[in-house]
Amino acid sequence: QVQLVESGGGSVEAGGSLKLSCQASGSNPYRRCMAWFRQVPGKEREGVAFDDSNIMVTYADSVKGRFTIDYDNAENMVYLQMNSLKSEDTAMYYCTGGETCKDYWGKGTLVTISS
């Protein structure tokens, strides 16, 4: 059983920063890829940042240069550092993992940016 539990969401003013955390537990295969997705009600989920076995890290164009994904292998923690936040970053953020980066999902943590 793979479990992903997010934390660190909250409300912050535009221009501020937040750091999301995800505690991963369970069988090892989930480590193939770890990622962060986000979703706004009424819109499709958007892949924000991907860490593919610490070999390749990619970001959505909308967050490139502002967000950083980091995986702590020793602690099985995945982080998303978000800087220079904008109102359009407001969303539910999900930690994901697995062979396709989307096999396992956390329940999400809400990020609200006020302008």
Which labels suit this protein?
7-stranded mixed β-sheet; 115 residues; globular; 53% strand; 4-stranded antiparallel β-sheet; mainly beta
Structure in words:
The structure is a single chain. This protein has 115 residues and is mainly beta. Helix content is 0%, strand content 53%. The chain has no helices and eleven strands. The strands form two sheets. Strands 2, 4, 5, 6, 9, 10 and 11 form a seven-stranded mixed β-sheet that branches. Strands 1-3-8-7 form a four-stranded antiparallel β-sheet, with no helix packed on it. Strand 9 (91-97) and strand 10 (104-105) form a beta hairpin. It is globular, with a radius of gyration of 13 Å.
Radius of gyration, in angstroms, nearest whole number: 13 Å
Instruction: List SSEs in N-to-C order.
Output: EEEEEEEEEEE
Number of helices: 0
Mean pLDDT: 92
Work out the helicity level: under 10%
What class would the helix/strand composition place it in? mainly beta
Low-confidence stretches: none
- How far apart lie the N and C ends? 40 Å
Overall 3D shape: globular
Main β-sheet, in a few words?
7 strands, mixed
The share of residues in extended strands comes to over 45%
Beta-strand segment tally: 11
Summary?
This protein is an all-beta fold.
Helices and strands, with pairings:
Layout: E1 3-7, E2 10-13, E3 18-25, E4 34-39, E5 46-52, E6 56-59, E7 67-72, E8 77-82, E9 91-97, E10 104-105, E11 109-114
Parallel strand pairs: 2-11
Antiparallel strand pairs: 1-3, 3-8, 4-5, 4-9, 5-6, 7-8, 9-10, 9-11
